[in-house]
Amino acid sequence: MTKDLTNIIESLLLVADAPLSVERIKKIITSADTAEIKDALEELLRKYGEGKGGFVLREIAGGYQFRTLPEYMEWIKRLIQPNPLRLSRPALETLSIIAYNQPVIRSDIEHIRGVDSGGVLRMLLERKLVKVLGRKEIPGRPLIYITTKHFLEVFDLKNLKDLPTPKEMEAQPDSSSEKITQKPLFE
Amino acid sequence: MANGFYQVKLSHVFEGPMDLLVHLINKNEVDIYDIPIAQITDQYLEYIDLMKSMNIDFAGDFIIMAATLTHIKSKMLIPSINDKEDEDPRLEIARPLLEYLRMKSAAELLVERNILGQDTFAGNINKKDYIIKPEDEIIDVGLFELIDAFQKILKNIPVDYRLDFTGEKISVKDKISEIISILEVKGSVTFFELFSANVGKSEIVATFLAILEIVKLDIVRIVQYAQTGIIRLFYL
Question: What are the φ and ψ backbone dihedral angles of B201, each rounded to 5 degrees?
């Protein structure tokens, strides 16, 4: 059964149109338990690891999916004409703010960007990269935004903890830091 | 257009006051923890004036930032009573700037990832995701790069042409159709070519506003070549 199970999962992964989670696989193969499925997936991760072929098995958005290696994208683009992500800079900034600070409300975003972000937010909602989680129980009951599963899929992320760490502009200065001590005009 | 004024609204096309500040800090190559506040404030206000003189309807956010900068500038002038305790008033602007830059760097890291449908592909992806033409590697130009380029043009106007006593009105609308007819023939044109003729300041301003307007209307795409720095308009 173990070998069989691995093969079944392998074939499911080939056909699936979205990353397959362990739970989803368990619902399909009811006879297998979670541990067995995880073992089979581990085996497949080894089989389809980096450097073995033209594509790899990757953990994405809480599931598993076959993905082609980026070095072959030029060839794939001769086969199909991809539609690049094409997110504008303001859209990417807004998306980052939501991703790193979620859950956020619109005023949080605008506080960081210093500019009205309604239009960009609407666009991110339309492209299903962010979604509304609910309303915050403060005056005005503003909408709460979080990123979607689709966001994780597009950016090849296992989960939100997998987000790259943005570089800090050197160490945060504290009040004792020399550089920023106030220089009064009259000394 | 009846009143002779033409308003250009940029709120959704271009960036905000934070981007202008970042632009100025990069341009002056100054340390974010040690911003020469007087210098940066002056330059910031200069930009606002220039935008105002061109009737660019910038958001009130720019004014708020101007007020914040001026406030910090004035605080810097007052000697603090116990300067051990008081924090640098510039932190009021340095902190949000740092947070903003952190998010900008996060945005860059996101773009660098293996993006689905661009760098990496999955098996059964909806075919409709893969239509439309691919594009060349170029940078999209922001408002401030355009204003910089425009300032260069203004500086190059011969003195004789700077004063304009004629009442002749050049409408932005006419300029738009003029630029579009050039684009219809040539397909693309460089930013500087559009200003090459020896013309008065009002016409140059009209040309600039016309460019902003057609970019906003998605009639042209405006890009800057990463290597040469040449700004070019493409007819869409």
Answer: -65, -40
pLDDT in tens, B133-167: 333 345 567 777 788 888 877 777 766 655 555 55
Does the residue A187 lie in any domain?
no
Domain end position, chosen among A78, A104, A125? A78
Q: Which of B78, B108, B132 is the last residue of a domain?
A: B132
In this structure, the answer to whether residues B112 and B152 fall within a common structural domain is no
The C-alpha angle with vertex B41 and arms to B40 and B46, in degrees rounded to 5, equals: 95
Identify the domain containing residue A125 by its residue range. 89-162
Residue ranges making up the domain that contains B52 = 8-132
Chain A closest-CA separation from residue B46 CA (Å): 19
ipTM: 0.74
A81·B118 Cβ contact <8 A:
no
Write out chain A residues lying below 8 Å of B76, CB-based: 182, 185
Contact (CB<8Å) A92/B80: no
- The strand pair at A104-105 and A143-147 is best described as antiparallel
Partner residue opposite B59 with nearest CB, options A77, A116, A168 = A116
Same domain assignment for residues A55 and A96? no
> A114 vs B100: CB contact, 8 Å cut-off?
yes
